């Protein structure tokens, strides 16, 4: 009998396959498409309530559909008039790919399976949300000069009903902080408007709430079809943005918002006093904007203040760009934020309200999610955002907030080290040696015993303009994993499109360009720059360039003396850069032919390969073939023929860049030469930006005096002046020295 994929998706069976590679290999079980579900759309907010279509399934209209997420959360599915089946996504307290199964026999068996991508509430498109028109007005309602009507709009086609209800939900966390019984909950509070026509618009004048509803000051609105009961969970819904519920607060807030908020701010301050100090374990900020933008394995743009989007920095006046630490801190899951001014200098809260503030709750949440303080977005709102409203926006007590959330300076920040490979592959090691290795096969670029990090590269032969094979190779695929993380592979497909594979499955970035995966985060820009950020803080960046991949690996200092492979031993010493698997080394001035042997020594084996072999070509060339093709001999010294018309163009393009010249001559393509030249230039810039910078730390002004200057890096000088009637003792000015200490003595007036 033929095997079936029922409940076996992802497995290789004896007669056929239910693995995702079976479609390109042509060995799927006959019922693969029936049981291994493709869905559309594939992602939605973690708040749930979104319907998604189950493609290619032949359910009949009388089937009762049950969708079960994570083997425990059940939602009702439905079959539309056109016979197509849909599931409704549930409210989840986590982000990432969530497995689900479908039953058509009222929950007795769940033979169909797929995955749903749950994303941070800020990462869904505006069409999927209802919109608070003039959101600031909602969040300041009842404070001086803010009253009148509020308007809510939504895409009425998003809910296929004639009448809808609009509900208010609140978020809170119960139990003891940082204990087992600390729990997160979204709770239905009341219905704001019932059975109104689904026109896509509601305008109303908010009345103060009564009773204990007014204790809820952070929440969200939900629009649902009126046919469901109040507060019913996991039904078709449109949620608003999460927001400060000023508009719904009670009379005590309306009567004196500033006094109400001041009391709340003081209460928050007293609570903070008792909580553990998370600031001791968060990573320090990069010293300069250049460092912050180069350290892509550990820091990512904070979309609330982005230099590439015109630096609209509402919460950080004076800043041009902010970044957030990608990983939450180990014990308390706290977040770090770093902001910079137009000179590239860090802005500190001690000097300016535009300074960066660390977060008790990381905005993006952190694995394993599910419980405070790791709930994506909402934990952060509760500890770090609503408190900002209490202290800074609804009352004038911002100094309390800034005292609890002061900027970290950069005294303990250490930039990562970078290694790169590009073109007809030229390698720059972590210790900045460079060499060219033109092997054909699959090789270990870097591996580390510290976190079981492995980054592997596959090379393929270049093509000459006439279509024949060149005497050189280039990177065509890179695969990577750390500890037991997901496996990511970036490759050129046979028609030269860039593909990203997650555990062998090609990813689609049409809905989401940021994904929270197991042991890593993945980001893709519109022009397909792929960044993988592992939980250790190591980062891998890949982009397609003229038919070859350009790769950069960034490793934090803790990897020193813990790397091997083609990128060498990262320890600041070039003597041992060319270390073989058996720990013997080759001299730094080895010839290209000797280096070819060094490269060949780092070929991988099928047992340790992270690559996906899902076409006949890949199977024959790399799986069944040699991992290092010993019959392929590249050209080691390309000949510059003065009579060759290409040479003149090459000289004007490449100038003194030897890698650019090498690649033009081996591939006969100026385009390849040009992308090599750019990659080479970018690598040099990156290494420059990652140079360590010395900081002497923040200096205060003396009592009864002022200071001039807010730059605390090497060579900068701060001067001090006393107020009228006071005299200065100590140093009038102090300069940051190479030792990391300030010159002179602390001034006083």
UniProtKB/TrEMBL annotation:
Keywords: Disulfide bond, Membrane, Sushi, Transmembrane, Transmembrane helix. Residues 694-749 form the Sushi domain. Residues 417-610 form the VWFD domain. It is found in: Membrane. Residues 1-40 form the SMB domain. Gene3D superfamilies: 4.10.410.20, Complement Module, domain 1, Immunoglobulins. This is SUSD2 protein. Residues 257-405 form the AMOP domain. The lineage of its organism: Eukaryota, Metazoa, Chordata, Craniata, Vertebrata. Disulfide bonds join 722-749. The keyword Transmembrane applies. GO terms for cellular component: membrane. Pfam families: AMOP, C8-3_MUC4, Somatomedin_B, Sushi, VWD.
